[in-house]
Each structure stands twice: as C-alpha cells, then as structure tokens.
Amino acid sequence: MPDIMVWIILIIVILLVVAISPWLFRLLKMNREQKLSRDTHYQNIQRDGISKHGQGTTTYSDGGKYEGEYKDGKRCGHGVLTLPDGRKFEGEYKDGKRWGQGIYTHPNGEKYEGGWRDGKRCGQGTHTYTDGSTYIGEWKDGKRCGHGALTLPDGRKFEGVWQDDLPNGKVIFTYSNGSRYEGEFKKDGKFDGQGTFTYSNGSKYEGEWRDGKEHGQGTYTFPDGRKYEGEYRAGKRCGQGSYIYPDGRKYEGEWKDDLPNGEVILTFPDGRKYEGEYKNGKRCGIGTYTYPDGGKYEGEWKDDKKHGYGHSIYPDGGKYVGEFKDDKRHGYGNSIYSDDRKYEGEWRDDKKNGYGTITYPDGSKQQGKWLDGKYVGQ
C-alpha cells in the first residue's frame, strides 16, 4: 500500500511539471530580455515571441522613452526618443542608430534638422545654436563638411567650403557693416591665400593674404581714387610698390611699415620729380629734385627738406654749392649768379650772413661782413 501511494504522488508531480513548464520557460525568457534591454515596460507586436518587431513603446529605467518602430530587436524606421534631460530626437532609425532624416532638439534651444548616418549628422542639414547662430549646409561624421553657410547673431556670415567643422578653402565672409571678403580661408579661422576684401567705406584690397593680413603682392584702391600696387608684409605696405594719387602724383620704390622707405621716385603732374632716399615717409638722405622750370637740387635731405650739403641750379642759370638747413642756404657755401658774380662765405636763412667775399666779373672783390644779405663792412 505505501508503494502505491509513492507511485501516485510521483505521477502527480510529473504531470504538474509537464503542465507548467511552458509557462516557466516564457517567464524566464521575459526576465532575460528585460535585463538585456534595461526596459521597464514594452508594448509591441512580437515576432516569433523573441525580439521587438513593429510598432512599440519602450520606457527605460533612467526615465528615457522611445516610441516607434523596431526590427529584429533594434530601433528601425520612424521613431521618437525622449531622454531624461529633455533632449529629443524624432526621425528615422536603422540598426538602432539615427539614420536618414531627423530632428534633434535640446532644452537649451539647440536644434538640428536634416540628414543622419550611423548616428551622426550627415548630408544636408540646418543647425541652430544656443547663441542664435545658424548653419545651413553639408555635414559628414557629425561635423560641418562641404558647402555651407554660417550666420552669426551680429549679422556676419560665412559661406563656402567647410572641413572638420571649420571654414577651409574658398569662402565669402560678409560683415554686418557691409564689408565683404571673398577668397581663400584656412581652418584656423584666418584669411590665407588669394582674396578680395571690399570695405564698407568703398576701399578695396585684392591680392595675397597670410594669417588674416595682407601679405605678398596686392592692390589697394581707396574711395578717393588713390591706389597702391605692390608688396605687403603682415598687413602693411612693405617692399617694392607704387602709390598713385588722384592729382597725378606717384611714388615708386621701396616701402616699409606703410611708408616710403629707401630708394624712391616721386613724380608730379606738373613735371617735378624727386629721385632718392626716403625715411619714414619723408625725403631723407641723398636725393635729386628736378623742377619743371629747369631748376635742380642734388644733395642731402632731412624731414622732407634740403638739409646738409647740396648743389642747386636755378632757372636763371645761377648755382649754389654748399650747406643747407630747413630748405634754405645756411652755413658755408659758394654761389654763382647769372651775371657771373660769385659769393663765397657764410649764409643764414637763405641770405648772406657772416663773413664772405664777392668776386665781380671784372675780377674785383668785396670782402667783409654781411647781414641779412647786405654788406655791412669789414
């Protein structure tokens, strides 16, 4: 009798195990999927009772939520993902990643609308930044790359080629005041290469740039008609160049720190001409000044004036060889007049002053002291 009871109990246990085993299997499988996906709740159409497939909603343990399509357990198709911090993506997915067209928004106001690939911005898209800047253009691997335009809050606008999130290559840079640069640009954010800058006041520079400054060969045109054509260095006229004024004056020669420096030829429309040395924009050193009436000075200069030793020829045929100061005969010098008189002696303020001797054409001489051009005696 006891043996029969044991057998009866054993048979009952076996029947119970067989009856509940499918239910236990499904329960264990559900727990395993929850651990793998970290989902706290999921409602969808399951395929083969194994993975998420079709339309569904997933609420994550961190508070995030996805509503949309699945395929083989991964987000695929159209969906909306909302993160705990308020960020949101609405668009297309593939293999669990953002892929196709989509809109990304951030609580701080940032927004991107456009193409995605492999979870990154890719293709054509528009990005609005927290400071109000807007970029419209091409993307690659999550960075601005290709042709695009960035408009800044102050009205400035970059339009052109981008690489690694920065302008690089041919660009058009427009300022809010109307100034405009069109040319080459480096990734470090500076004009570099060939380019044209048109200023709001009408000035224009066309030529070479380096590190954001005029550098190399270039032409600068001013609104009033002035024009410089020549070499630049670090944003300043430096090297060989010519500067033409609206009235016809023209500088040709060496420049340094934006001023004529070195050997220069200055010509005037009335025929005057200076050929010689300049320093800091002024005649300084040795130079020759020729006048249209036949006059000529050859000698030393300082601060744009005859200063030092020089030789003057006057329109009437007279000559002076000697010292000058502040554009006047001053010091010791010899003067030959058109009537063949000769004076040798001291000068002050362009007049005979001090001791000197006049020799007349007949050979007679007058020697003594002079004051303001007049003989005052021995």
Report on this model:
- The chain has 378 residues and is mainly beta.
- The protein has a domain of 37 residues.
- Helices cover 10% and strands 62% of the residues.
- The protein is built from 1 helix and 30 strands.
- The protein has a 30-stranded antiparallel β-sheet, with helices on one face.
- The termini are far apart.
- The relative contact order is 0.03.
- About 6% of the residues have low confidence.
Quick recap of the structure?
The protein is mainly beta. The protein contains one helix and 30 strands. It has a domain of 37 residues.
Task: Give me the secondary-structure topology.
Blueprint: H1 2-37, E1 39-47, E2 51-60, E3 65-71, E4 74-82, E5 88-94, E6 97-105, E7 111-117, E8 120-128, E9 134-140, E10 143-151, E11 157-163, E12 166-174, E13 180-185, E14 191-198, E15 204-210, E16 213-221, E17 227-233, E18 236-244, E19 250-256, E20 259-267, E21 273-279, E22 282-290, E23 296-302, E24 305-313, E25 319-325, E26 328-336, E27 342-348, E28 351-359, E29 365-371, E30 374-377
Antiparallel strand pairs: 1-2, 2-3, 3-4, 4-5, 5-6, 6-7, 7-8, 8-9, 9-10, 10-11, 11-12, 12-13, 13-14, 14-15, 15-16, 16-17, 17-18, 18-19, 19-20, 20-21, 21-22, 22-23, 23-24, 24-25, 25-26, 26-27, 27-28, 28-29, 29-30
Estimate the mean pLDDT confidence.
90
List the total number of helices.
1
Kindly provide the radius of gyration, computed on alpha-carbon positions and rounded to a whole number of angstroms. 45 Å
The CA-CA distance between the termini, in Å, is: 173 Å
Shape: rod-shaped
Give a short account of the largest sheet: 30 strands, antiparallel
Supply the helix-strand structural class.
Answer: mainly beta
Q: How many strands in all?
A: 30
Stretches where pLDDT is under 50 for at least 5 consecutive residues are: 27-49
Q: Could you estimate the helical fraction of the residues in percent?
A: under 10%
* Residue share in β-strands: over 45%
